[in-house]
Structures are given as structure tokens and as C-alpha cells.
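Apologies for my clumsy wording, but can you show me some protein sequence, whichever is easiest, together with the matching C-alpha cells, please?
=====
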Amino acid sequence: MIDLNTNPPEGVVVEEADNLKSWKIKLIGAAGTIYEGEEFKLEFRFTPQYPLEAPDVVFVRPFVPVHPQIYSNGHICLNILYKDWSPVQTVAHVCLSIISMISSCTKKCISVAKKDCLGFPELDYGCNWSAYVRPF
């Protein structure tokens, strides 16, 4: 946490981290992307099993990006938050992965069905799906 406050990755700002169960972090859209300069808020919720289990990470309304791998309720379809979680990953790693995921899109759109999160290659919304989707 100290490193995240003193030397955060570009586009990451810690807003609230006063307790061990929940942190709020602001992400700023990367330059040169369709989200450039936009601000989004994430909530990290940590269970007693963290870091052996991934934290729950969601975008907080109304700061939810329009993106095919992010549902309107803020839930994020990203492998490292589920089956590809590793205890060596940090909050900074997760934030960078999310920034990378949203930066890879070339147009803003929403998921139209749950199968959008299953990795079907025929569902092309201008994003690099294969790097980020997770099967249910």
C-alpha cells in the first residue's frame, strides 16, 4: 500500500485506503485512447483469504466505463480477477491490467449478452478479447 501511495502507476490514484477491507481507487484513462482523461472509480474489497484469493474489484457508479467487458453494475470480466489470480499480484498490477484492458478498445459499447464474457471470437467490439475474457 505504501508503494501505491508514494509511487503509483500512471493513471492510478488512491482515494481511500484507511481500512484493510475496502479501498477506493481512481483510474484515469490513458492518453491516446478513447477513454483519455476520463476518470473511473474502482472499489477493491478484500476478504480474509486475500492474497490467496483475488479481491472483489468493481467499478463504482456512476464512474463505470462503457466497455464490452464491463457490465453496467460495475463488474469486470477479466481473467486475473478469477481463474488466473495469483497471490503475487498486487493492487497496482490489477489496476494496470484494467487500464490495459480498457485502453485496448477502439470503440465504446456495452455487453449485449452474458456470452460476451465467454470469449466467443465472433463477438468483435473493437477489443482484443483473447487477452482478457474469462469463461464462466
Observations:
- The chain is about 15% helix and 15% strand.
- The longest strand covers residues 22-28.
- The beta strands are 12-16, 22-28, 39-45, 56-59.
- Residues 12-104 form a domain with the Ubiquitin Conjugating Enzyme fold (CATH 3.10.110.10).
